[in-house]
Amino acid sequence: MTGGKTLGGLGLLLGFAAGPLAAQRRGDTVALAPIVVTATSVPTAANRLSSRVTVITAADLARAGVHTVADALAGLVGIAVVRTGPYGSGTSVFIRGGESDYVKVLVDGVPVNDPGGAYDFAHLTVDDVDRIEVVRGPVSVLYGSDAVAGVVQVFTRARGSRLDGGARAGTYGTVDADASVGIDRGAIALALTARHLTSDGPYAFNGAYDDRVLGGHLRVAPDARTTLDLSLRSTDADYHFPTDGAGNVVDRDQHQLSQSLALGLAAVRRLGRQAVLRVALASHAGDGGIEDGPDGPGDTLGVFVYHSRQDVTRHGLDGRLTFPLARATSVTVGAALEGQRTRGASAAESEFGPFGDTTDVRRRNWAGYGEIGTEVGAFALTAGARVDRNQRFGTFATWRGGASWATGHGWRFYGSAGTAFKEPTFFEQFGGGFVIGNPALTPEHTTSWEVGTEGVMVTGRVRASAAYFGQRFRDLIQFTSATGAPDAPNYVNVAAANADGLELEVSVVPLAGTRLRAHYTYLRTRVTDGGVLPDDDAAFRTGGSLLRRPTHSAGLEGDARWGRFSTYAAVRWTGSRADADFAAVPAARVTLPAVAVADLAGELRVIGGAGARPAFTLTARVENLLDARYQMAFGFPALGRTVLVGGRIGM
Known about the structure:
Elements: H1 3-18, E1 35-36, E2 44-45, E3 53-57, H2 58-64, H3 69-73, E4 79-83, E5 91-95, E6 103-107, E7 110-111, E8 129-136, H4 140-143, E9 150-156, E10 162-170, E11 174-184, E12 188-199, E13 209-223, E14 226-240, E15 255-271, E16 275-292, E17 303-326, E18 329-350, E19 353-376, E20 379-390, E21 394-406, E22 411-422, H5 426-430, E23 431-432, E24 435-436, E25 444-457, E26 462-479, E27 491-508, E28 514-529, E29 552-562, E30 565-574, E31 577-581, E32 588-592, E33 595-607, E34 615-623, E35 631-633, E36 636-637, E37 642-650
Parallel strand pairs: 6-9
Antiparallel strand pairs: 1-2, 3-8, 4-5, 6-7, 8-9, 10-11, 10-37, 11-12, 12-13, 13-14, 14-15, 15-16, 16-17, 17-18, 18-19, 19-20, 20-21, 21-22, 22-25, 23-24, 25-26, 26-27, 27-28, 28-29, 29-30, 30-33, 31-32, 33-34, 34-37, 35-36
């Protein structure tokens, strides 16, 4: 995209979003301090935390018209989202330069990433989401493995009586429909939701995507001291893709199946006047695989038939007791137990004959942790520690501490430091097929820190923030084929990398009913030890930057409401970044050029006023408004201009 086209489109977007401003009344101010439950062991106001946290509300999601959590995260400071093509394709989230498997993902408290951190955001939709909390930095003290660079937790709605439904359709044969019902009777609240998305995709053949989601949330309060929450979320996706690992269009019938079932039960009981006991059960089962038959009678070369299935389960129990130690001081002590299992099978037909493999391995983890928080005047202090004992890799300890200081003039300063770890994946530890795992692997780990400030100005209409952070990743696990012995493992702990950066953000409420937000991220990543890989390795070379993480990125968004009509506009600019061309042998390092992508959304309420029911609203969203041609992963073109038009009804 040329600079002139980008600036012209930006002016068009901002003009469209800000056009109704003259008709608005003064009075709105920037929202300051939502209560956050993911960053610490007790619910805490965001302006008392010692780390950077973003809360995305249901209203934010509705304004933007996004349908996945990844789309919502793409507009946040310090976060890079990479999708390898159309809807349903692999989607990764990088926080502050960390690896994509350094993000712990939870839905209503249930971990949904595979053990070892891997998670595909492609199928995590925003239906019936109440809010999304994004914590940057190490949080292993509370969540154990995988919470290295951050945590993303999705909370679904439980309260409120309602009947909602909507549908929209548009480019690439996309149809997106959802429905939800909520029954709230005070002591009992039940919410149910369903969503179905289909899309033909941009490819000439074999590009269909089908995603079905079912969810439920039951909240029961048998008395004033007790709350029970039961949540369920089921996803069943089928993504057809004609591309190989380098993005070449070569296959007419391969497709990827992905099924997920998350179940959570949390009980909270107040003991006395201030002590709180919380016990949570979490279960997640992920079942997926690749189905690839012959493309035709003449498909007899190489591997022409391949089938694989892998079932990964994790079941956990977490109990924590929070009690007062002194005035304005609370202590939390907790214990956790988790069991993990993976079972898999694969079979292939090739010109050299058939081959296959099966796996069935387990491991367990026990943990104890504690956290203390106190407020002394304008200061809020937290400190915590955790010890994990894993059946396979032994004992690993983590810690975290931080402080926040409110100046009394609308500003605060904060800082924190801590450690975190990511356990080896099942495949790295146990191998499979022609790969030999390494049972002696130790966790990858980091030491991280950040300092920052945020404050409000101009009678609460402007909020600005800045944060400077650093992360040191050590004992990274690498694959090597040069083992020196037939039975030597293919994975070893050897590599290291650093990530440092600066995050700037400003939010403005110029007039009532309007909002503008701008952000900028500077990120410097560097491989400090390439490990066993050759010096010219394209993906991980000593002295080079980490792949797919831009040095510079920025965003600008605005929304406004004018009577029954509301608009939302956003521009995300991603600077140049390193990637690898895996079609070359050996893979060649390449640079993806900078790109700006604009989105536009709008709503027209036809029946009912704001917050009134019944209501009927016409909706529209345009993704990649200026039809930019770009790739977030080399070899995989992003979607062009996509228009989705529909309506929503609420009773």
